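Let's practice the habit of predicting before peeking. Look at the sequence and jot down your guess about where helices and strands might fall. Then scroll down.
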Amino acid sequence: MATVLPRVARPPAVDELTLADTGAVRLLLRGDSVIDWHHLSFGDHGEVDRFLRLNEFDPESDDEIGRLEDLRGEACDYLARAFAMAIPDEVAEDLPARDLFLVASSTGPHQKWACVVLKVMHIIHHIAGRAGLLKLSVSDEIIFREVELKVMKVVEELRAAGAPIAEFEWSRKPHDSQITKLLAKRSTLAASIYDKLRFRLIVPSHTDLVPVLATLTRQLVPFNYIVPGESVNQLIDLKAELDADHSMPTATPLNEFSGPEYRIVNFVADLPLRVDRLVPRNQLPHDLAHVVFVLTEFQVCDKATAHTNELGASSHEAYKARQHERVRLRLFRDENDPVPE
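Done guessing? Here is the structure:
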């Protein structure tokens, strides 16, 4: 049976955002990696349990908390093997693994060690989930449908709780569009297509952007699985709206085929999905992780920007025309023709 996320609360206003909220939104907008973080911001076990549920761990399940303990053991073993690190006993085994999130959020003597172990746990769990997806004899159709159902359920709950979501839609990239995209890109690896499954949320006004992004990181998208380097932020001024330190630039790797006036907040997440949503529990291999990961793209903008994005050179039709022209140039290029930029 799939873990049920707790009933959603009213979306926070900007002045109600916690440190954890602002950290998650900054990471999402910049396309940073959680592996570069040096501190967490969990205040109590309730916040930790909410985060575990977001990552599809049921804190009331002995098996899944046992999985967390196993991950901690694997992480400590790796650190000892690869770097000869002597992890303090309190972090390595004395405290419950669930408490490491609070230690990593503290100012105590073991704070840094807890961060180090959690980072390695995160990577080991992600590798296992990625490997698990390859082991399942399940079609993309079934996997994508389950992700769509998961996202739709959360968005419906958010709307019912008062989240300012004016429009919501989702799409799957057609096969021909995948071919065209790879023909147009210098990298022709199919793995580089992150938008096979895309969700688009439009909010009523610009001031709704940050609260909705914060709510998504609370209820749907774990900040630790935002794909680094794949975020585009052309709408939110971090300094003005989150009082963010500008020591790191906001990530804006523009799509080369987008129009000059096109504006969007775009990010990619490896969404966790429970395996028992895809295969009956009694048919699961014993060595399979209980969570797999599915790359999913999200686009968020306000209503006025969404309207502008469909005009003139910014429209989808103009985008496709520029992309198709690049493909023609590459396919019909002669020996002495310059490589298309």
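How did you do? The CA atoms of residues 197 and 296 lie 5 Å apart.
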